[in-house]
Write a sequence for this structure.
């Protein structure tokens, strides 16, 4: 049975859909994802499952589930810094980590209550880019760059 | 029909399909130039947005809340409300014909301040309808949303 896998990568501008047999296995999925990057990619790319820290999380999957979300990146980790009110918190995440998860971690580290956290967003430092919660941080960092800095900002109040 | 082709491309994009697979939104139907998209709120309610997309994607769309059963604008009493949610979903703005967002065609005129205050929400043709949908979804996840029974 064919399933759709949603792929993000440092080298893709948007999410790509990879259609593959559910019993194809990790190697074939990796190969199919690499094809989405185009021909002639000689470098090594690692494939990660969304929001999974375990590099071998594919081995736990008996088959490829419909709607699986994955990420292809040349790095195994991205250094994240989140700045807020004169403080900053930092740690390394897999490139497949979503903006939503990074925000949950950062607001917890900063001692912000969950109710207040829903009224805040991550904005890439020095830009006006506020990525959607489902965006993988790996899409914001193209190797050999390995760090992304966010400002934690209030969600917009459109009142004037 | 280049505008409809552009819309179709965005509705078939991986980003739209990924959000739909996660039940964040759902394409209800396209009746060009009208497009109906259902989005989910924090309290479990689902709202249908009716987008008017003439001139897409160069021109921003305009959206209202829609009652698919009666085929008319959703009654004001059923609009989501509370804090910043009520700012965006304001049935008193343009008679409810548009949402109060910097990416809504009908709300842009007279708001040059939005260019500097909300640059992230200014209509961007390359992001297309997803920009509008993601902005609405973000608002509907607010803790300021007044809960109603879904």
């Amino acid at each position: 049975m064919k399933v759709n896998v949603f792929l993000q990568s440092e080298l893709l501008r948007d999410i790509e859909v990879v259609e593959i047999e559910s019993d194809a296995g990790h190697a074939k999925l990796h190969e199919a994802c690499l094809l989405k990057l185009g021909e002639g990619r000689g470098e090594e790319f690692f494939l990660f499952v969304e929001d999974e820290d375990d590099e071998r999380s594919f081995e736990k999957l008996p088959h490829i589930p419909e709607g699986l979300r994955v990420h292809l990146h040349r790095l195994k980790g991205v250094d994240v810094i989140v700045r807020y009110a004169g403080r900053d918190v930092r740690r390394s995440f897999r490139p497949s980590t979503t903006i939503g998860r990074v925000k949950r971690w950062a607001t917890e580290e900063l001692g912000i209550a969950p109710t207040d956290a829903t009224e805040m967003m991550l904005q890439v430092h020095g830009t006006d880019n506020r990525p959607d919660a489902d965006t993988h941080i790996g899409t914001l960092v193209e190797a050999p760059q390995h760090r992304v800095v966010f400002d934690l900002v209030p969600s917009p109040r459109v009142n004037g | 029909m280049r505008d409809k082709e552009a819309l179709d491309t965005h509705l078939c994009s991986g980003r739209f399909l990924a959000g739909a697979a996660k039940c964040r939104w759902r394409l209800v139907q396209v009746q060009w130039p009208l497009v109906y998209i259902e989005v989910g709120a924090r309290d479990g309610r689902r709202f249908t947005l009716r987008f008017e997309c003439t001139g897409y994607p160069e021109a921003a769309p305009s959206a209202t809340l829609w009652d698919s059963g009666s085929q008319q604008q959703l009654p004001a009493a059923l609009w989501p409300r509370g804090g910043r949610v009520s700012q965006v979903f304001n049935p008193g703005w343009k008679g409810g014909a548009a949402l109060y967002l910097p990416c809504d065609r009908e709300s842009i005129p007279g708001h040059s301040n939005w260019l500097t205050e909300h640059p992230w929400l200014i209509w961007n043709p390359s992001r297309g309808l997803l920009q509008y949908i993601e902005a609405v979804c973000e608002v509907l996840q607010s803790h300021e949303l007044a809960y109603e029974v879904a």
